[in-house]
Amino acid sequence: MVTFATYAGGMREAFHEQLDSIFSDLAEICQEVETSVRHATQALLAGDSQVAEQVIADDDKIDKARERVEDTAFSLLSLQQPVAGDLRVVVSALRMVSELERMGDLSVHVAKIARLRVPDIAVPEDARPTIARMGEVAEDMVRRVAAVLTDKDVEAAIEIGRDDEEMDQLRRTSFAQLLGDGWQHGVEAAVDIALLGRYYERIADHAVSVANRVVFVVTGQLPVTSEL
Amino acid sequence: MVTFATYAGGMREAFHEQLDSIFSDLAEICQEVETSVRHATQALLAGDSQVAEQVIADDDKIDKARERVEDTAFSLLSLQQPVAGDLRVVVSALRMVSELERMGDLSVHVAKIARLRVPDIAVPEDARPTIARMGEVAEDMVRRVAAVLTDKDVEAAIEIGRDDEEMDQLRRTSFAQLLGDGWQHGVEAAVDIALLGRYYERIADHAVSVANRVVFVVTGQLPVTSEL
Question: Chain A: nearest CA to B22, how far in angstroms?
Fold first, then answer.
């Protein structure tokens, strides 16, 4: 793990130690989000209400973990009074934890669509490859964000932004399918799939945003064309 | 307008003056969001591509205004080094401006659906009353959030949270309609309406969240069952 104490040239100041603890908490929350995304997709594609319920119930853990990170960040701001770059790093951490929590919420939305259609499967068989791939891409992006939070690897973080394009492409493919003449599965399945596409797309957007914030934290600059 | 300088018992400290300036900027951005929501709904219901384009183009102003608020907030944090409650107020302001920007983005999503269907109107006539009402409720909530940001009126802020229930009810009504046997408008219109419902619902969620943050800023406590 690359720590902020490392960046500080070996000075293990209280500030950098607390910052490292915040980032390791963020990485841990991100791993929980990855599990949520994976289980939500699994529940969706298998029509498994038990797994869906688990995703919904486990979201509480992510919410609680978020509160802990916020408390640590506020105490860091209050007690250490960071300025300039250090201040922006702590505020970035607060934003990242909000985004991770939101990604957890979006997994819950996926799980709820799964649960709503049990004993059926929300996604008709011929639409499944695209939705399954969306789930995989989202999960993969979240997994890599967790690694980026641990390793502070700027190149890997920038790479996540590039892979978001596959998600956009999948969403276009999915729309083309359900709005095409060959669609035989009616309105309900189409609406489910449109909303699922939206949820996965938002998970991917947040993943890119968190990755970009890591780039900012390490380099002091955001990747081109992204916003803090 | 109720100012933070007022709360400080007339002491016009630099901190409270800057805080007042942030909150008046937030109120102004919120008014721009209200305009975006209103115009987006108008573009949607009239199939007016010119108004839709305007909403899309004007979003840049909201993004720029957000950057200005962030810069002021960071300079406040750096130079004034607030602790405890004051610190939380400034961080809340940073969160509010993110949410306002997001509400602007969601209006752009509505406008893009409008634009996509021109010269047609995305929403079929019998679905229009529900969608029109969603647009009204969203616009009304955003307008009241702008007033709450100016007046710091806790009661009015809490009221906004209560009115979010109408939005949830409208979303249920809309789903029931497009998934019902009487739906004659095919998949495309149903998908548009499902996504529009999602966008309006999110605008309303963010409005409630910003209102709750104002309650927190004024009272130091969030309304029951809401989260910061």
Answer: 17
Tell me how far apart the alpha carbons of residues A194 and A188 are, in angstroms, rounded to a whole number.
10
- Is pLDDT of A125 > 70? yes
Q: What is the ipTM of this complex?
A: 0.90
Query: So what's the pLDDT on residue B9?
Result: 47
Would you say residue A60 lies in a domain?
yes
Q: Per the structure, how many domains does chain A have?
A: 1
Domain enclosing residue B207, as ranges: 4-219
Tell if the CB–CB gap between A77 and B87 is shorter than 8 Å.
yes
Residue B108 has pLDDT above 50, yes or no: yes
Nearest CB among A84, A190, A198 relative to B187 is that of A190
- Claim: this prediction has a pTM higher than 0.90: yes
- Per-residue pLDDT band for B12 (boundaries 50, 70, 90) equals very low
CATH code at position B148:
1.20.58.220
Contacts of A77 in chain B (CB under 8 A): 77, 87, 91
Q: In the structure, what pLDDT confidence band is assigned to residue B11 with cuts at 50, 70 and 90?
A: very low
**H-helix segments, chain B:** 4-7, 14-46, 49-80, 84-117, 128-151, 154-179, 186-219
Nearest-CB residue to A198 (from B70, B91, B198): B198
- Look at residue B36 and tell me if it is in a domain: yes
Most B CBs within 10 Å, among A72, A79, A91, to test the B interface: A91
**CB-CB neighbors (< 8 A) of A183 in chain B:** 187
Cα(A218)–Cα(B207) distance, integer angstroms: 33
Residues 6+ apart with CB under 8 A from B170: B130, B133, B134, B137, B197, B200
Residue A176 falls within a domain, yes or no?
yes
Whether B121 shows a pLDDT value over 70: the answer reads: yes
Structure tokens at A143: 């997994």
Say what the pLDDT of residue B199 is.
Answer: 98
Domain membership of residue B226 (yes or no) is no
